[in-house]
Amino acid sequence: MIADPAIDVKGLVKVYGTRTVVDHVDLTIATGRVCGFLGPNGSGKTTTLRMICGLLTPDGGTGRCLGHDIIAERDAVKRQAGYMTQRFGLYEDLTIRENLDFVGRLYRLNNLRGRVDQSLERLGLATRQHQLTGSLSGGWKQRLALAACVLHEPKLLLLDEPTAGVDPKARRAFWDEIHALAAQGITVLVSTHYMDEAERCHEIAYIAYGKLMARGTTEEVIRQSGLFAMVATGAGADRLAPMLRDAPGITAAAAFGATLHVCSPDREALMRAIDPLRRDGLQWDEAAPTLEDVFIHLMGQAQDNAMAA
Amino acid sequence: MQFLSRLWAMIVKEALQLRRDRLTFGMMFGIPIMQLVLFGFAINADPKALPAAMLSSDHTAITRSLISAIVNTGYFQVIREAASEREADELLQRGEVQFVITVPGGFTRKLIRREQAQIAVEADATDPATTGPAIAAVAQAVTQTLARELSGSLAQYRPGPSPVDVVLHRRYNPESITRYNIVPGLLGIILTMTMVMMTALAVTREYERGTMENLLAMPVRPIEVMAGKIAPYIIIGAVQVAVVLAAARLLFDVPFAGSIALFGIATLLFITVNLAIGFTFSTIARNQLQAMQMSFFFLMPSILLSGFAFPFRGMPGWAQVIGEILPATHFLRIVRGLMLKAAELNQVAGELAVLALMLILVSTVAVARYRVTLD
Q1: pTM for the full model?
Q2: Nearest Cβ partner of B219 from A56, A75, A102?
Q3: ipTM of the complex
Q4: Do B304 and B212 lie in a common domain?
Q5: Which of A165, A199, B172, B209 has the most crowded Cβ, counting Cβ within 10 A?
């Protein structure tokens, strides 16, 4: 039991027509933690984030966000949380400064000028503050959107795929910023598709087909998965993937550079599958499954559940 | 205070965006001027100097004087003296002239004998609106000329009641200048067009560009968004009105007889109603194209059934009922009353009340329909 969690939702459900997009999701995040929210496209990540920040009304379930009811006290949640949309949500026909001014005024911030100056300074956009926002590159837009989100000093940040389509350097800068914010005690829930980003989070939550499939730190999630993995090195190892991929019991087989990575929840099945491929010049070693292995495995499991249902 | 500061945030943002969108901004001032010039100069329901042919078989002082009186009405420009009836017919047929004025032989003799004398005006009536006033003018010219010519010693020959006496009595606009009627109407149409469309677009644009999700995630209330979006356009609308009025005065000498203050109140009310309608449309439309289509759907009856395009009393009952629902109808009545008839407050109070009622109704619907969530 976490004392005084930033997010505490139970049994969240959202239905669009006949499709249950979010299916009884429970999620608790302790204050000050950076939680990665992962899952395939269309798994319900955005919908869940929107329900938490009061943009969507859940069809079922209850929850509190920063101590406020996510349905009844929607306005209070909005005042204290910052939500960064997947699509750039600021005005491209306003200048950088005008956008920040606008956001600041909506939150009724005092000393608006000083705060915006400070924010621009921190962003490194002070000299370009009178430039139209539409002229910024993708990476800068994302950093500006983040700056706009934290202008009112929220206690919780909900970020929806903030680094999609952003180059590695800008992504690195973005994540440094997130950790700097977390160090100030801000809770962050960030959805992403990138494994390296997942690994930079304190903890992760994995959702597929609307269902929460895994929860915990990276190590915990890998351990709980019960997966076994083998790595093959040697001549031609990377070309074996197609032969193993459809073998019974195999979750994934993929080439990483010159090596081959195979995993399965069933150790016996894994050994059986690679047995015919043990030959000279090819070395097989047991390895720890990667986060990606786990996600592919979980996705397959969720798919099976969805089919069975 | 909270309300005001967030409202201010919305207003500043909208005004800045409006300023950046040069094309739209230009159109908002271009449209009224263009329409005014088009309707004022190009479209004239009381055209003059229409081409006419004269066919006279009676050459006397009286007929000559009659003919010149007819020409002097200004409605006709005699471009041809036809020699025969056939020639005159052909001119008319080919469309070279719009009228053939025929003075039959023995016209003067008949007149003096106090028999029924006739002047025939054949008109190309393919466009009845054009010919109506001209024909009326002929009758008047004939009566007046005869009264003048047959005076003194000839007074005994003066005919009794004229055989073609047409009484034409026009009030408020004695010269029947179409623009006097068009300008107030045009104000209503221009405001309906730009105001409804601009707000309808302003909100759907937020959805289309993906900024609405961001806006909704912030603590701003529907009424603040609505009022903030509407306010800059109220100023734009007021400037449009000023431009049209000034142009009407400078270009066409359209008078303004009534109270400017009353006019200001009516205009403000009307602008706000239209903006609220546009806002309501934007809560229904899913994209800017749909918003545009809805605006035009609303504009059509406003042009046709408000009394702008056709006389309101001439419309069938069902059309009048639709017309009464449109704010433009009521605004037109107020403005025509104020500009041309110098109407007083008590004479326009009823129409003002209708506009106020519409504003309350539409705003309620708009705020009720506006969603604070993305559901």
Answers
A1: 0.73
A2: A75
A3: 0.82
A4: yes
A5: B209
